[in-house]
Design brief:
Helix content is about 45%, strand content about 15%. By secondary structure, it is of the alpha/beta class. It has a single domain (about 5-230), classed as Alpha-Beta Barrel (TIM Barrel), CATH 3.20.20.70. The strands form 2 sheets. The chain has an 8-stranded parallel barrel with strand order 1-2-3-6-7-8-9-10, surrounded by 6 helices. A two-stranded antiparallel sheet has the order 4-5. Strand 2, helix 4 and strand 3 form a beta-alpha-beta unit. The mean pLDDT is about 95. The structure holds ribulose-5-phosphate. Ribulose-5-phosphate binds near residues 144, 193, 220, 222 and 223.
Length: about 270
């Protein structure tokens, strides 16, 4: 692996502890102005100081993040479909030239194993890895799950392993029962998505269990930006990922930030 690739990976997965908190705010690429991201800048700005990196599209990056913010960028480079259509019908939507111009630390693309467009998305991953390798830019494969697909260790393990075999440098998947099996059979670092908004304590338990069983961190979106205290939640998640905090201690961080926010408002 060349120096540039290693350097970019180190901007995402922190060498001090081998862990990462990635903030996912890319949802608009197929969901449009989804809840909590109606005005991306308003949501993203207060969270940046607590994120090791942010995952987003080039449109939101250019319009809603100051270049001086100096936060490592994981650029979503796949898309081309909306919630109204077959979601797996994705292609690469950003050129490598633009990714380089935007000085990204990694590029992210979804693969839809078992879906109608499985082959298209897997070949796109392989092509993106070729481009990434040429320029020293790591690729994050996102194991997207179709409506009818099980989120179990067998299926997620299959998706993660295929992503690794095709050359991805990091893979994002979902936490599931038997997550250790997913980790054991995947030779690249695994991070987990938060999934749909759940009560804060459950999202913290998810993060805790994921890192306990071998994930290097999270790429969490809705359970942070749709929380009643997004800053409280990302700080609580950070405590779990980087400081080995218990769920109870992390929850206290969230509650205290929520209380401070309420006092400020009142
Ligand atoms: C969408 C994505 C999201 O970034 C991912 O699902 C993480 O966000 P959340 O924690 O809200 O699930 O890749 O395809």
């Amino acid at each position: 692996m060349d120096w540039g690739m290693k350097n970019r990976l180190a901007r995402i997965i922190k060498p001090e502890d081998g862990r990462t908190v990635m903030l996912a705010v890319d949802h608009g690429y197929f969901l449009g102005p989804t809840s909590g991201l109606e005005q991306p800048r308003k949501t993203i700005e207060p969270l940046i100081p607590y994120a090791d990196s942010i995952m987003l599209t080039r449109g939101v990056l250019r319009t809603s993040v100051d270049p001086g913010a100096n936060v490592p960028v994981v650029l979503r480079v796949s898309g081309g479909t909306s919630i109204l259509k077959e979601l797996s019908n994705e292609d690469i939507t950003v050129s490598i030239d633009d990714a380089i111009r935007l000085n990204v630390s990694a590029m992210a693309l979804s693969i839809f194993v078992g879906s109608e467009f499985e082959k298209q998305t897997l070949v796109s991953l392989a092509k993106l890895v070729d481009e990434g390798e040429k320029h020293g830019i790591p690729v994050l494969a996102v194991t997207a799950v179709g409506k009818d697909m099980a989120r179990d260790a067998r299926y997620l393990g299959l998706s993660c392993r295929i992503a690794a075999e095709l050359g991805a440098h990091i893979v994002k998947t979902y936490y599931c029962d038997g997550f250790e099996e997913v980790i054991e059979s995947c030779p690249i670092p695994v991070i987990i998505a938060g999934g749909k908004k759940t009560p804060e304590i459950e999202a913290l338990e998810l993060a805790f269990n994921a890192v306990r069983t071998g994930a290097v961190g999270v790429d969490m979106g809705r359970n942070i930006f749709q929380s009643d205290s997004p800053v409280g939640m990302i700080r609580a998640v950070r405590a779990i990922v980087h400081e080995k905090a218990s769920v109870a201690d992390a929850y206290k961080i969230y509650e205290s930030a929520k209380g401070a926010k309420a006092r400020k408002a009142g």
